[in-house]
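Module 6 notes. Inverse folding takes a fixed backbone as the condition and produces residue identities as the prediction. Think of it as a translation problem where the source language is geometry and the target language is the twenty amino acids. Below is one complete input and output pair. Work through it position by position during the lab.
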């Protein structure tokens, strides 16, 4: 959609736009010396690629995982399309940031909710979206955010009977109980005795179903109308005063005590979550409490906690609760569920916030959905041999709320694959997130025209060793790609179901003024300018050296010169090379076999580990220490210099390659093996040893590694700081934990 929105703005065809962008990105990536295997380049906008996206749609369709239904969906007026819940988080369109409205529309969904929990098929276990998170190496905050988005909660569903008071005209009101029951989900069935009213969302069917029984229906409908114009953010805003209207003429019966309680419509209850209705327990829920206070509703406390506050949301002991009195929350929950089940008015239930993934869009630039509608045969999937269904080019792609593809006769009018009669093609396209949910698999086998990738190549290359991407994809791409992998594993196309076992997020580089770079603030740094002045290698190293990889940090133009000097030093050291070790003068040989060689091996160890841990800034620091030491030497053996070049090659590839060729090497440095370190030489020989008195660190000594225990204890007790803390008292015990710490008691 970004490509398409841009096309609409500029008037150019999205195909041109997309390919212009690809060309630009290619130039930039090459200029930055990014090691990318261009023979594996993929382009999701060409039919050779999206044919497999359509194939995956059919795989889902044939297995009941892709379906069409009418539902309340998110509609972006400015983008003129529906959006997935994940693209409308917080009630705003992910693309254009405008508020999203709710509309009843018939749309295509993928059944992502089928994959929340683990499943077993013929002895094969498919780990669910929830448990799969437990053992992948992802930032903890991302896992938490994904778990929260899935939003699993345990509790019970409870059915409340509806009473309706008829014939109000005859002052004597007649009560009839309707068959309709109002169902709610609650995580706190233990508080049912404290439920004193109910709330339905403005969209709830109860309102239309009881239209003729609700005596103040005009007022109610006015309220519903106002609520419709509010965004979800506004409705969820806890700082806003609660609003609502009682549905007069009908009541609900609390099943546990038979009490007649009022029903309200209020916009703080959303239709998309749970059943769109709640049992309100004002004594133990914040929003219910606010609402009850405003509407003067009785508040009955049913859980006694530590505090005496009127509102208590924690766990405690049940009171005012009949057969639950005296029970702790956990036990009370179980007992209540037992009671509900026995009396057939409710049951134990698990609820999730996650909804099925809405994938259809009323837009042009996406993979067409491979479905045909025939008047006689109904909904027919396109036969696999007819794929790909290519996007027509003879349409106006500007969004009108209806799919642009419907305008193309050549596209829209087809023959039914089953009976041959005239039929219509589905004119919605799939969201771009569908294409990106499986692209990583295509890299393994980018030109395959028999399958999305061959099984052997998938086995050889996947899953992805290390994946880097922004945290903004947490409940979009990172969730969808996991879902796709689980589907493909279930149907035996791949043998893993977590596509990205190791994930890291890159930090964002802010403008020098600590604000996000933006044209309007005039704080955008143009990498081309830096490259022109200092070269690509300096830019690359500067970006890596600015701070930890995953942190947000401001751009600093100060450090650039320092890195330029650093690379200059490496350049200059080449004059000190004297060939092999045995060609060194006696004094240099002596010095080289000791300090610099040791430091080299320590540096190899450090940089090897740092790269694996994405600590590029500290890797560069240790390079600097090594280069400073080498600079002080009169002569340097060629093998040490070569090793230095290996170490800098991933960071400053251009200078490394040039210096490598000056050592009269014919082949590229990137065909060489990464250096190995000698663990004896790489070992630290001095360590910092904390000395603790009664559990508190009072001094730190630097010692030679493996100093004998007696000597260490002696040194520790002689330390001035320690003496002061001991103040002439003799310690009872001195313990030395080898190379770790000294404990004095
Ligand atoms: Zn939008
Ligand atoms: Zn037909």
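Target side of the pair, the amino acids:
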């Amino acid at each position: 959609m970004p490509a398409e929105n841009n096309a609409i703005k500029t008037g150019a065809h999205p195909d041109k736009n997309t390919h212009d962008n690809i060309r630009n990105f290619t130039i930039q990536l090459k200029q930055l010396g990014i090691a990318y295997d261009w023979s594996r380049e993929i382009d999701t906008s060409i039919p050779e690629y999206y044919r497999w996206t359509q194939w995956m749609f059919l795989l889902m369709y044939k297995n009941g995982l892709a379906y069409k239904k009418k539902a309340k969906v998110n509609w972006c007026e400015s983008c003129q399309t529906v959006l997935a819940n994940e693209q409308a988080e917080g009630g705003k369109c992910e693309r254009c940031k405008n508020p999203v409205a709710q509309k009843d529309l018939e749309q295509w969904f993928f059944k992502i909710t089928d994959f929340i929990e683990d499943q077993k098929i013929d002895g094969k276990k498919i780990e669910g979206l929830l448990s799969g998170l437990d053992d992948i190496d992802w930032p903890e905050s991302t896992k938490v955010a994904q778990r929260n988005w899935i939003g699993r909660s345990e509790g019970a569903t409870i059915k409340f009977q509806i009473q309706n008071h008829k014939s109000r005209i005859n002052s004597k009101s007649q009560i009839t109980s309707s068959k309709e029951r109002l169902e709610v989900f609650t995580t706190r069935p233990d508080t049912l005795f404290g439920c004193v009213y109910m709330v339905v969302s403005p969209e709830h069917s109860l309102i239309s179903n009881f239209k003729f029984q609700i005596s103040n229906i005009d007022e109610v409908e006015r309220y519903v109308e106002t609520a419709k114009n509010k965004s979800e953010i506004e409705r969820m805003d806890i700082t806003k005063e609660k609003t609502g209207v009682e549905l007069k003429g009908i009541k609900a019966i609390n099943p546990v005590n038979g009490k007649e309680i009022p029903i309200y419509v209020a916009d703080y209850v959303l239709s998309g979550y749970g059943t769109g209705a709640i049992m309100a327990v004002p004594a133990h829920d914040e929003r219910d409490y606010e609402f009850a206070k405003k509407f003067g509703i009785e508040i009955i406390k049913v859980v006694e906690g530590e505090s005496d506050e009127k509102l208590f949301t924690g766990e405690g002991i049940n009171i005012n609760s009949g057969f639950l009195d005296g029970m702790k929350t956990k036990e009370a929950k179980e007992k209540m569920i037992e009671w509900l089940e026995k009396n057939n008015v409710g049951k134990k239930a698990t609820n999730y916030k996650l909804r099925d993934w809405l994938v259809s869009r009323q837009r042009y630039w996406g993979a067409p959905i491979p479905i045909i509608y025939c008047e006689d045969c109904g909904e027919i999937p396109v036969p696999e041999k007819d794929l790909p269904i290519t996007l027509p080019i003879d349409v106006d792609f500007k969004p009108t709320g209806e799919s642009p593809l419907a305008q193309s006769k050549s596209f829209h009018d087809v023959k039914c694959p089953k009976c041959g009669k005239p039929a219509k093609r589905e004119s919605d396209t799939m969201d771009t997130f569908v294409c990106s949910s499986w692209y990583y698999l295509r890299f393994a086998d980018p030109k395959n025209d028999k399958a999305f990738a061959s099984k052997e190549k998938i086995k050889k290359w996947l899953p992805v060793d290390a994946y880097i991407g922004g945290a903004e994809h947490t409940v979009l791409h990172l969730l969808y790609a996991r879902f796709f992998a689980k589907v493909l594993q279930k149907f035996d196309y791949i043998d893993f179901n977590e596509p990205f076992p190791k994930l890291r997020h890159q930090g964002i580089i802010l403008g020098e003024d600590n604000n996000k770079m933006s044209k309007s603030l005039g704080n955008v740094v143009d990498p081309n300018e830096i490259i022109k002045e200092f070269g690509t290698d300096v830019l690359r190293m500067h970006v890596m050296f600015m701070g930890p990889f995953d942190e947000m940090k401001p751009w600093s133009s100060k450090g650039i010169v320092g890195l330029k000097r650093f690379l200059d030093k490496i350049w200059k050291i080449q004059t000190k090379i004297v060939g092999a070790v045995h060609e060194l003068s006696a004094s240099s040989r002596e010095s080289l076999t000791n300090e610099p060689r040791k430091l080299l091996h320590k540096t190899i160890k450090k940089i090897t580990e740092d790269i694996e841990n994405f600590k590029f800034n500290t890797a560069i620091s240790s390079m600097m220490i090594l280069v400073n030491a080498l600079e002080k030497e009169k002569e340097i053996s060629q093998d040490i210099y070569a090793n230095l070049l290996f170490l800098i090659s991933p960071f400053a590839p251009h200078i490394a390659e040039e210096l490598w060729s000056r050592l009269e090497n014919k082949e590229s440095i990137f065909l060489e093996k990464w250096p190995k370190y000698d663990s004896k030489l790489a070992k630290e020989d001095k360590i910092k040893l904390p000395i603790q008195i009664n559990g508190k660190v009072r001094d730190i000594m630097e010692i030679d590694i493996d100093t004998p225990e007696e000597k260490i204890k002696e040194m520790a007790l002689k330390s001035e700081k320690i003496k002061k803390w001991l103040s002439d008292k003799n310690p009872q015990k001195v313990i030395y934990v080898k190379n770790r710490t000294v404990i004095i008691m």
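Reference fact for the lab report: The two ends are 67 Å apart (CA to CA).
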